[in-house]
Amino acid sequence: MDTIVIKFGGSSVADNEKLQTVASKTIKLYEGNNNVVVVVSAQGKTTDKLIKEAEELSLKPNKREMDALLSVGEQITAAKLAILLNYLGYEAISLTGWQAGIHTNEEAQNAKIEYIDLERINKELENRKIVVVTGFQGIDDNGNITTLGRGGSDTTAVALAAELKAKQCYIYSDVDGIYTADPRKVSNTEKLENISYEEMYSLSSEGAKVLHDRCVEIGERYNVPIITGSTFNENPGTVMTHKLEASGVKSIVKKDVSRISVIGYGISSKDGILNKILEIANKNCLEIFNIDISRTKISVVFKEMVKDEILEEMHNELIKNEKTYLKNE
Known about the structure:
Elements: E1 2-8, H1 16-30, E2 34-40, H2 46-57, H3 63-87, E3 92-95, E4 102-104, E5 113-116, H4 119-126, E6 130-134, E7 137-139, E8 145-147, H5 152-164, E9 168-173, E10 194-196, H6 197-205, H7 213-222, E11 226-230, E12 238-241, E13 251-255, E14 259-263, H8 271-283, E15 288-294, E16 297-302, H9 308-320, H10 322-326
Parallel strand pairs: 1-2, 1-9, 2-6, 3-6, 9-11, 10-12
Antiparallel strand pairs: 4-5, 7-8, 11-12, 13-14, 14-16, 15-16
């Protein structure tokens, strides 16, 4: 029997109605004769709310106690989902990060997973239970609760998938895959069917809020098949693999207010791409502070704030009209 790991982000579990959708998606995979491990984030803006409340008590909250506090959000989600699954007739059990055997170093609020003891998870899976694990957290050698930093639930899911040798690891959110740009900022984006780990790492490290960059590293190292998709529809997602397809621009992302990165394998060798970026910058009177180029990335830092309209213009020129400026190369 195959094991599948599925992760649901905060927007997917934001309220009880959405938890019903999460339960249905989980049950469908379980009934496909799979063992299922579900990793969940805190509901909605719970983590932000807890941080705000802590900062009302102290300008510099103790890091150990912040880990203890912030871990509660995921525990609430996991317990609620397990309660719902059991009510629907499917045996489920919620496990905190430490109950699930996730051991980390001692770096509070940004801990790294050192190893995972699968004894408890395997025991529950052998009894055909759906195992719901709290994302974002573990325990250090001193018995302290630790958290993995923002986006850490992605890392929990992929690390568990690697250790369990899972058939697939689904990362579900309110977006049904990886797009050529943020569809909330650019109007005519396209969804990618496939993306390489290397390209995805560049995209994540440049601020794309799709996957945590550390989880992409783990996926690449252990060859975990990662699929990003939407909790709320059945559209095909984006599959992450080692395969590097034909060179060219895959996606464009804006980080902070003044950095735009163009992502795609082999783009550093195509002069037309950099020339087009410089042309758009010059046309819009944008002064460039720095350019960083690697095999899968061209990042440009401007001296002033860059509006989303510039992002859309670059997207249209570099992806929609790619053949135009590369035809003479």
